[in-house]
What we know:
The complex is a heterodimer. By secondary structure, chain A is of the alpha/beta class. Chain A has helices at residues 10-13, 17-26, 61-67, 79-82, 100-105, 110-116, 120-130, 142-150, 172-179, 181-195, 209-221, 251-258, 287-299, 301-305, 338-345, 379-384, 403-417, 423-440, 445-462, 466-470, 472-481; strands spanning 3-7, 30-34, 46-48, 51-53, 71-74, 158-163, 199-204, 236-241, 282-286, 308-309, 312-313, 315-322, 328-333, 355-360, 367-369, 393-398. Chain A contains 21 helices and 16 strands. Chain A has a five-stranded mixed β-sheet. In chain A, strands 13-12-16-14-15 form a five-stranded mixed β-sheet. In chain A, strands 8-7-6-9 form a four-stranded parallel β-sheet, sandwiched between helices. In chain A, strand 14 and strand 15 form a beta hairpin. In chain A, helix 9 packs across helix 10, helix 9 crosses helix 11 (209-221) and helix 17 runs antiparallel to helix 18 (423-440). The N and C termini of chain A lie far apart (74 Å). Chain B is α+β, with helices and mostly antiparallel strands. Chain B folds into two domains: 3-64; 76-150, 3-Layer(aba) Sandwich (Glutaredoxin), CATH 3.40.30. Chain B contains seven helices and five strands; from the N terminus they run H-H-H-H-E-H-H-E-E-E-E-H. In chain B, strands 2-3-1-4-5 form a five-stranded mixed β-sheet, covered by helices on one side. In chain B, strand 2 and strand 3 (115-120) form a beta hairpin. Chain B starts with a helix and ends with a helix. Flavin mononucleotide binds next to strand 9 and helix 20 of chain A.
Amino acid sequence: MTTVLIAKDSGAKSVGADAVAAAFEAVGADVIRTGSRGLYWLEPMAEIDGVVYGPLTPEDAAGVLADGRKRIGPLADIPEFAQQTRMLFKRVGAMDPTDIDAYRASGGEAGLNAALALPPDAVIQAIADSGLRGRGGAGFPTGIKWRTVADTPEQQKYIVCNADEGDSGTFADRMLMEGDPYLLLEGMAIAGYAVGASKGFIYLRSEYPDAAETLTNAIANAPFLDNELDSGFRFSIELRMGAGAYICGEETALLESLEGKRGLSRAKPPLPAHAGAFGQPTVVNNVLTLAAAPIILAEGAAAHHAFGTGRSRGTMPFQLAGNIKQGGLVEAPFGITLRQLIEGFGGGTRSGRPVRAVQVGGPLGAYFPESLLDTPMDYEAFAAAGGMLGHGGVVVFDDTVDLATQARFAFAFCAHESCGKCTPCRIGAQRGVEVVDKITAGDNVDANFTVLDDLLEVMRDGSLCALGGLTPTPVESALKWFRQDFDKGARQ
Amino acid sequence: MNESADNSDIIHAIARDCLGLDGPLMEALVRINQRFGYVPKEAQAILAEVLNVSQADVAGVTGFYSDFRSAPPGSTIVQLCRAEACQAAGVAGVVKEVEAALGCAFGETRGDGAVTLEDAYCFGNCALAPAAMVDGRLIGRVDAKTLTALVKP
Ligand SMILES: Cc1cc2nc3c(=O)[nH]c(=O)nc-3n(C[C@H](O)[C@H](O)[C@H](O)COP(=O)(O)O)c2cc1C
Ligand code: SF4
Ligand code: FES
């Protein structure tokens, strides 16, 4: 019987993968449901003996088996896949993510076993030596965070996985949780061992019901959870759901929510590493940060450090989104340029029109013009260009975009999602919407540009957390590179 | 009266189930909202009593999160992503068509109770934008026609 791999990933299902899988079963194929390879423009896609077919409809199933209909070619020969460096995502799409035996047979648990054979301090040292920085947005060195928690003397400590992935244009966390959930759980256990925490929470956004189901299963089946391991270490994980609040991706608001409260950002200090969940020392890390730990422990810090550029080490799963011909996931070493991603991997816009603006790093990231596309994907290079790498989402817009509309949306989104704790954000964002409206209506344009500049300064410098503090970034970049969109010459 | 008594029993049971958890209030509300599609009024007093918090706390938390509806939704819930990647893929063009086709504005439930239309901010399907979710099922590359077809007759 022919074995056919078809993704069970919610993105693949969103364009019909379930019906395609059923059609293959109906014609007698042995279907294995996997994560997605991240080549979303080919979904629903089937993989048979390493050869890819897609995008498929249920009617194609018999033809694919009989005469190779819709054959794309061997996966290894598809440049958009072959030119990636799959470290974190090496299993995603290749196997049934719920199958713990398949996980072990493909190197799963090697990282945890390596960690347990070391003193906790040496595990932290390996993470530090690897150069791993937080993948959630801020790029904070993970080794330093773990060391801080390890050095804080408390009986009860926590590992909290930030699975809120609220940034538009990002879906790598979702793909990993749906496609290789054990890797994340193993990473959390390694973090727990390293810092002396026996309990972990995954805080997952409610927009990801499929990931919730996959994780619930994996938590119940993972042999390394809820059992005493060789070293006497024992770790358990609880899944908690969010309820539709972007601010709960911010780590202190997340902790409030986890504690059952409204998701208001906390003032820092104290750092979560000193007093986090329920007042106890807490590691808060992004999904991809934690999932990198098993690989670093299994393959060595040097192997991780060997990829990347400058102070951005390792690989990053970049996500191509928006108006893009070949949208999907591209795991590549830091240092690849925005142009290589968009033109090389992405094949340009889906509309076929020229790229006019690219927003990297989610709703708080800058809009870059075409002239900045040669910027390397590197934390420092992005900061120098006035942007932010964030969680690695790349949203492409063609020449029909209006950047005044996008700037207005940045304010409106901030107003909608503001936790309301501080005035610059709560009131400022609403004022921002109004001022942009006045400018685009031609009302007192020059005076209102000055008001806007002042407002941006107040928000940037006076906000308690980065929602209010970084909303100026997309607005300022729009003003800097696309000022003509605001001031179309109309004066009242 | 009977329905409300049933609701109270269910809410009581959920609250008791959550009692052993750290920070149980949020989890209890998530489960109640999942069970009913909204948070019934009687939840406030029951949660306060069982979880030993004030009714003001329950009201504050319930009101903070956009998932927690205060009234029963329509039989089908259609959520359309309005965030940047979906904007780049032309969701603005879908918005008016969807409202017209479903006969209901964003944030509203249609008069006959058949459908609730809501906006959302990113389903992690940004490579297949515009994206929507219909009763928890993710849909990629949506237009008004696909969405309308998914509404239960
Ligand atoms: C408004 C806002 C939203 C955020 N959303 C997320 C998120 O969805 N996921 C995430 O991992 N980090 C998010 N962050 C960053 C977190 O606050 C925090 O830096 C991160 O979880 C730390 O983990 P890391 O060091 O592994 O990146 C957000 C920050 C802000 C200010
Ligand atoms: S900046 Fe906005 S989200 Fe952050 S604490 Fe202030 S009001 Fe809350
Ligand atoms: S922005 Fe619409 S699904 Fe991500």
